[in-house]
């Protein structure tokens, strides 16, 4: 049933419904990650562990291991503490800005610790096609880089249209998560599979 309280010009510009989970313009693939920006990754991990979310793999992203760093369309070095925890078929991510310009620092300065972005896998589309599709839909690239020279990530200015930031990233077939600098609250027993 169409929403009759919307103006006709808005209704005529909406995509068609093609199934119970897709529209005619669906391109983003599967939700794979939810992320919180924090000013204290240890405090936030502790709180999430109390909810049963963890264990956490803790990394530092910096120019030492993240190449092609950009901020608002320009090359820009930045460093973040980044923490990952599996939760079913999704990943929780925490990001604490350490230094340099980033959308994460901007967000933290404005909002404090809070939910920041959702990441999609974009259906194995070629990386450049993914970036172009966001831009084509009016969403500007605002932060990007390549972790270990392989795992490309890109964030888009989608907040005004959606209320949050959207990210896409690419894991090449030969990608394995590197050993984290630490685990919280402790390293899991046995083999770690991501």
From TrEMBL:
InterPro entries: Glyas_Bleomycin-R_OHBP_Dase (IPR029068). It comes from the Bacteria. This is VOC family protein. Pfam families: Glyoxalase_4. It comes from Ruegeria haliotis.
């Amino acid at each position: 049933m169409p929403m009759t309280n919307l103006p006709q010009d808005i209704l005529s510009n909406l995509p068609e419904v093609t199934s119970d989970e897709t529209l005619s313009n669906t391109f983003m693939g599967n939700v794979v990650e939810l992320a919180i920006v924090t000013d204290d990754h240890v405090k936030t991990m502790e709180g999430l562990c109390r909810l049963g979310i963890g264990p956490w793999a803790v990394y530092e992203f910096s120019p030492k291991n993240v190449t092609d760093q950009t901020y608002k369309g320009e090359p820009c070095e930045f460093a973040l503490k980044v923490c990952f925890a599996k939760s079913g078929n999704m990943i929780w991510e925490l990001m604490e800005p350490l230094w340099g310009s980033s959308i994460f620092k901007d967000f933290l300065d404005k909002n404090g610790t809070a939910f920041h972005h959702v990441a999609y896998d974009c259906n194995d589309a070629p990386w450049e096609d993914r970036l172009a599709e966001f831009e084509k839909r009016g969403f500007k690239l605002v932060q990007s880089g390549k972790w270990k020279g392989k795992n490309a990530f890109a964030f888009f200015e989608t907040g005004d249209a959606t209320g949050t930031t959207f990210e896409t990233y690419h894991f090449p077939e030969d990608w394995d998560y590197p050993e984290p600098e630490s685990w919280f609250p402790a390293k899991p027993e046995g083999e770690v599979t991501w």
